Amino acid sequence: MSQLFEEFDEISTLAEGLDDAEAGSRIMAVIELANSADPEAIPHLAKAIVDADEGVRKQAALALTAFDGSATAAALVVALSDESQAVREAAALSLTELKDPEAGDALLPILSDGDEFTLFSCLAGITELRRPEAMAPAIAALEHESPKVRCQAVSVIGWLQDSTAIPALRSASTDEHPSVRRTALAALGFNKSDHSEKILVSGLGDSDWQVREAAAETLTKSGSKTCIPDLINALDDDYWQVRLKAVRTLGRLGATESALDIGPLMAIDVPNLRKECAAALGELCVLESREFLEPFKDDGDPDVRKNVRWALGRMEQLSA
Fold first, then answer.
1. Count of CB atoms situated within 10 Å of the CB of 305
2. What are the C-alpha distances in Å from 318 to residues 188, 222, 313?
3. What are residue 299's phi and psi, to 5 degrees?
4. pTM for this one?
5. CA triple 38-42-47, angle to 5 deg
6. pLDDT in 10s for each residue of the chain, 320 residues
7. Element (H, E) at 151
């Protein structure tokens, strides 16, 4: 008998446990099928998805995390309509582990139908699969009443990295919910255009500090220096987290004109911010900024000390 048939026989033997009268035995059969890592186990796990026992169904949904492809996705879609919320949540979790684009075949029809939980779960499952067909339903989902759904729809759009979706992301960047606006700004990082940069600069003035933080961080990817004055203004933000991202972006953009604005932030009692300031000053290497670094050569935080000494070393080399 060939190895192929030996393996098939092994899976068939394990699957016999799914017919056991005891739910505990059926759960063990599901676990053993998952541990086999054999794709031949998928139809048997799909059978367990509709088992009479909630525990078996939940275990089957979790077990499918070990597999991929359209058959796996189809079984998980069935579990999304389970009467048990625990089973539905297990299925939703497994959907996020899908990597094979073909798995999207089972998810695409659900993107224009289903309740809030199902729609959110299928959007989350298809996000990293980068199926172009998901663009239209994702844009439509930007009108959904649930901010969770809108936020996940933005993620789908962002992962597709299609410049034609910029108008949709612009609209999402003004959504009433900050999590949607934040996700939209992060999604704009794939596109280096004047349109994207203008939207991101607008985000620096958002009422929510986490949205402003996302804008400052994503501007790093723009490569453009026209936003430098706006980033320098962000150094005065009320939240140190926003200042930190602005500092990092200014450093990576090579904004030497910002060095003397970054320098005073070394005095703020937030080690992470001081660390980023020292790194940025080292990248910019403006000799006049040494005075801001010198007092922190023996900073209490080892990462700050390391960056300060590195920055001063670069400046010393430049002035030699």
1. 17
2. 36, 28, 9
3. -55, 150
4. 0.87
5. 140
6. 445 444 447 899 999 999 999 999 999 999 999 999 999 999 999 999 999 999 999 999 999 999 999 999 999 999 999 999 999 999 999 999 999 999 999 999 999 877 999 999 999 999 999 999 999 999 999 999 999 999 999 999 999 999 999 999 999 999 999 999 999 999 998 877 778 899 999 999 999 999 999 999 999 988 888 999 999 999 999 999 999 999 999 999 999 999 999 999 999 999 999 999 999 999 999 999 999 999 999 999 999 999 999 999 999 998 87
7. helix 147-160
Residue type for 199, please? I
What is the C-alpha separation between 102 and 124, in angstroms, rounded? 15
CB–CB of 99/80 below 8 Å?
Answer: no
Token pair in block for residue 59: 């275990």
Tokens found for residue 109: 């029809």
Q: What tokens appear for 28 in the block?
A: 């063990």
Q: Rounded to the nearest 5°, which phi and psi values hold at 125?
A: -70, -35
**How many Å apart are CA 152 and CA 222, to the nearest integer?**
23
